[in-house]
Amino acid sequence: MFSPFPYYPIKASIIKSVINLCKRVLGKASKKMAKSPKKNKQTSASNVLTRDQHNVSRKQMSNNALKVLYRLNSGGYDAYLVGGGVRDLLLGLAPKDFDIATNATPEQIKDLFRNCRIIGRRFRLAHIVFGREIIEVATFRGHHENAPDKEKLCQKTSKQSEDGMLLRDNIYGSIEEDAERRDFTINALYYSAKDFKVHDFANGIRDIDAKLIRLIGDPETRYREDPVRMLRAIRFATKLDMTISPETEAPISELAPLMANIPAARMFEEFLKLFLSGKAQLTFEQLKKYDLFRYFFPATDQMLNDGTHPHIERFIVQALKNTDSRINNEQRVTPAFLFAAMLWYPLQSHIERIRNGQPHMSPQDIFFAALAEIMSEQQQSIAIPKRFQAVMKDIWILQEKLSRRDGKRAYKALEHQKFRAGYDFLLLRAEIESTPEDDELQELAKWWTDFQSTDNNTQELMIKSVFQTRTSSRRSPRKRRKVRETNSSDNG
Length: 492
Ligand code: ATP
Ligand code: MG
Fold this sequence. Notes:
There is one protein chain. The protein is of the alpha+beta class. The chain folds into two domains: 26-210, Beta Polymerase, domain 2; 292-453, cca-adding enzyme, domain 2 (Orthogonal Bundle), CATH 1.10.3090. The protein has 23 helices and twelve strands. It has helices spanning 12-35, 63-74, 84-90, 106-112, 149-153, 175-181, 204-210, 219-225, 228-240, 246-249, 252-255, 264-275, 280-289, 298-306, 312-328, 335-357, 363-379, 386-403, 409-415, 419-433, 440-452, 456-472, 477-491, and strands at 47-49, 79-82, 99-102, 116-119, 125-130, 133-139, 158-160, 166-169, 189-191, 198-200, 212-213, 243-244. The strands form three sheets. An eight-stranded mixed beta sheet has the order 1-10-9-2-3-6-5-4. Strands 7-8 form a two-stranded antiparallel ribbon. The chain has a two-stranded parallel ribbon with strand order 11-12. Magnesium ion (MG) is lined by residues 83-84, 96-97, 99.
């Protein structure tokens, strides 16, 4: 007969140790729960959408994000998918990443996951690492004015600058407070894997339907707390094809100078999000419209505004277009290429100034002096990691190398590790800088296009023909064309 309590001959000592283990585990868990944040009574209620009222399905979620949600829930904590993960699924888009919010503190999260590391000082959070996928878990944030005085004094948890900028944001709170601390209404949506409900704390679903980017709370205060929210407003409007609501848009121009306080390392991260998501061209136009581009590339911005350079705007726009189309075709891109493009003409202007001031310096020394100047100037705005600086330098150096093709030089350039990037950069320059009167760059680019894809013998002939063309360059245009025709029939 079936009995719910089958008999096993277990020794009393084993039973005792199991009971002790249970006591220890339960004791630890209840201590943890006691430490978990208290609910704030002043917070607003959410609109709740049951599973049949929304299209957010677990099938579209990362398995690792689900694992984290389940583990936190079974550890006795509240846990929700929040932000872009919910917003994008509601919009029928594939989320870029899956962020989780919980009432467990970073230390409590660490106790639950072996693959967890705690990161950030300004904003502490837990990263749960699954190979290449990282699930970001943030503890519910609370309001700083609600923090106990002792905590306010403790700069580890809360710190604000004179401008109102939050230098530390580690005051924990309830889910309602957390929702109020999020940036935009469409980002304050929480999905529970326990009951599959979506909690909408700030009318985010209404704004998703109206395609509106709207800050939660008083826009000026929220921008002062974190000026990067100005960039985020632009990023989401561009990414999601939405409009920034008038009250969210209004303070941007006046508060834009607060961007100068953002650390260069954070600007690098924001640059990647803004320019490597497949909408770089549109983003660039929006950043210029709100006068925010200058905080990324001051020298470039100045050149764009003084209108003295004939090609710079078209050059940058074309580089961004190319980047967008590569990303949208799932081809690889390196931020170094964009940095090289953004700073190419400012670099030329440094070179010119140094050359004029010190005419006896060698072209190579002038280049390296200009390089050092531009890099140190640019690092004030964006902390470009060394590995990308090295690629930028290679791309720029290759521009000179690609123009000198005699002897073994062409082969050496072809073998250069960054040849492809240098060649793509040359194509871009040729496309923008060539004119019907001056098509030298266009010819050079075509030469390299042909050179890469032909056999050794033809390559030899092509190198020889460079000299003939060079000698003939002093001849009349008609004779020059003739030599070119002869060369190309040789190559054919
Ligand atoms: P995506 O990942 O597609 O870029 P996202 O909305 O998920 O968009 P994240 O940067 O991943 O953006 O941030 C996750 C969530 O954290 C956001 O949706 C938002 O709720 C909150 N958040 C991020 N940055 C801020 C900020 N500066 N101020 C307030 N809340 C923020
Ligand atoms: Mg995200």
